[in-house]
TrEMBL record:
SUPFAM superfamilies: TPR-like. Residues 1-18 form the signal peptide. Residues 186-199 have a biased composition (Basic and acidic residues). It comes from the Bacteria. This is Tetratricopeptide repeat protein. It holds the Pfam family TPR_19. InterPro entries: TPR-like_helical_dom_sf (IPR011990). Residues 184-206 are annotated as: Disordered.
Length: 206
């Protein structure tokens, strides 16, 4: 009886965040979408900095799981975009390391999201000598993401954006239009709406 009481006390003493991967993942995804699509530009850097701390703790709580590493990479890369400048290069290198670690564990986790995010980094980050940008690697990663999740909103959006960057507007249009008709993701409504708006804006530029 005594040991049972000790176990119960320990469980009650556990912090509220000690939940499970899907629950914590959904919370980070929702917070990311709120910052990305609803937070004023001048407040995004601090908000992503705080979320990066949460994502790091998420990874530490679930070693050996690909999902936390993927979202650590996503948060760090968008934090880098909000920060800008040379200081962002250190963040994108951290993001790349996190995404590569996720690939080593499970390349198909979250519908190949590590490939999508790595691909987006490789075409948006400057090339040598400032950064590690590489259009060939970007294309390869983005195509691998589409092979896993051909109807995915993010996979199609980033490949379309990449093709625009490569001055292939007609091919880009095919993928960006798929974003608008792609099935929504349960619990990701805010992110889906934001991504569709971005796709619509890109389509309007061509």
């Amino acid at each position: 009886m005594k040991w049972m009481m000790m176990v119960l006390a320990a469980l009650l003493a556990m912090p509220a965040w000690a939940q499970d991967v899907p629950t914590e993942l959904a919370q980070i995804q929702q917070r990311w979408a709120e910052i990305q699509y609803q937070t004023p530009e001048q407040e995004k850097e601090k908000a992503f900095e705080a979320l990066a701390t949460e994502a790091k703790a998420f990874v530490e709580r679930y070693p050996g799981r690909a999902e936390p590493l993927i979202w650590q990479g996503i948060v760090l890369s968008t934090y880098a975009g909000a920060e800008g400048g040379l200081g962002a290069l250190g963040l994108v290198k951290e993001a790349r390391a996190s995404l590569e670690a996720a690939l080593d564990i499970d390349p198909e986790a979250l519908d190949g999201s590590a490939y999508t995010s790595l691909g987006s980094l490789y075409y948006q980050v400057p090339g040598w000598p400032l950064g590690f940008g590489d259009d060939s690697k970007a294309r390869s990663y983005l195509q691998k993401a589409l092979a896993i999740n051909p109807d995915g909103i993010d996979a199609n959006y980033f490949f379309g954006d990449f093709l625009l960057d490569q001055d292939e507007p007609e091919r880009a249009r095919v993928y960006l239009e798929k974003v608008l008709s792609a099935p929504g993701r349960p619990g990701r409504e805010l992110a889906d709406d934001g991504r569709r708006r971005e796709a619509t804006q890109l389509l309007g530029q061509r």
